[in-house]
Design a protein that fits this description.
single chain, 5 strands, two-stranded antiparallel sheet, about 250 residues, three-stranded antiparallel β-sheet, mainly alpha
Length: about 250
């Protein structure tokens, strides 16, 4: 005689059958993976000029995803490991979902690039700014070199003038040399002008006068009483010291 099954056994069998049916039902893998959208911030340069395209390759330092620019306004990224399918509608696959971390890192580099950042990690806009900065530095250095060259030439010219002065004093017996140098320096003459005066005195073009203390006192008195016109007239007529000599 067969023992009838109770109600609990029937419920257990029904549950087992449903469980088996649900396990044997295949999951859908025919949904195309849409990838992920690249929401590039508006406060940066456009995506095409700030994205590091130099890393868009399959090398060791390449990006782990590809970029779809079929719609330029809405670029999308897809993982290089993506199979092309996903199990949920309008959701990326697991591999594409991991790309968000890389996108956020690229955005952070584009917003705050460090001074030592390799140019491979920068976009065209940043490299353009770097080139402009280097060009400005080159122009500034060129200007500095020009200014330094002028200073060096001026310094060399002064050294040459001093050398000429020493040679003129040491190799020639110049009459009234003390008076010539004293008058020239009091009139604000440069070293070159002093040397030219000495050379004129040697060649006989310039004839310095030997004025004593009495001559200088008389010329000073005449200048105080009659002014520079009277002193000039007496200088031409009586060879008294001129105003430049005083």
């Amino acid at each position: 005689m067969t023992k009838p099954h109770n109600q609990s056994d029937q419920h257990s069998n029904t549950h087992d059958q449903n469980f088996v049916c649900s396990d044997t039902h295949p999951l859908r893998y025919d949904i195309v993976c849409p990838g992920i959208p690249i929401n590039w911030p508006e406060d940066l340069h456009t995506f095409f000029v700030s994205f590091p395209w130099a890393r868009y390759h399959d090398g060791p330092d390449g990006l782990p995803f590809t970029v779809d620019i079929t719609v330029p306004r809405l670029p999308r990224a897809r993982s290089k490991s993506c199979t092309g399918f996903t199990i949920r509608e309008d959701y990326p696959c697991e591999e594409c979902g991991e790309i968000y971390v890389h996108i956020y890192r690229l955005i952070d580099i584009a917003r705050n690039p460090k001074a030592h950042t390799n140019y491979h990690y920068l976009g065209l806009a940043h490299m353009r700014d770097m080139i402009k900065k280097h060009v400005d530095q080159i122009n500034q250095l060129k200007l500095q070199v020009c200014n330094d060259s002028r200073k060096y030439v001026h310094a060399l010219t002064q050294l040459d003038d001093f050398n000429r002065l020493l040679m003129a004093i040491s190799h020639n017996d110049i009459p009234c040399i003390h008076q010539i140098i004293d008058v020239a320096l009091r009139n604000g003459a440069s070293v070159r002008e002093v040397v030219n005066k000495l050379e004129d005195a040697l060649e006989g073009v310039y004839h310095p006068h030997r004025y004593g203390a009495d001559d200088l006192d008389m010329a000073t008195l005449i200048y105080r009483l009659g002014g520079h016109q009277l002193l000039f007239a007496l200088n031409q007529k009586l060879c008294l010291p001129s105003l430049c000599t005083l």
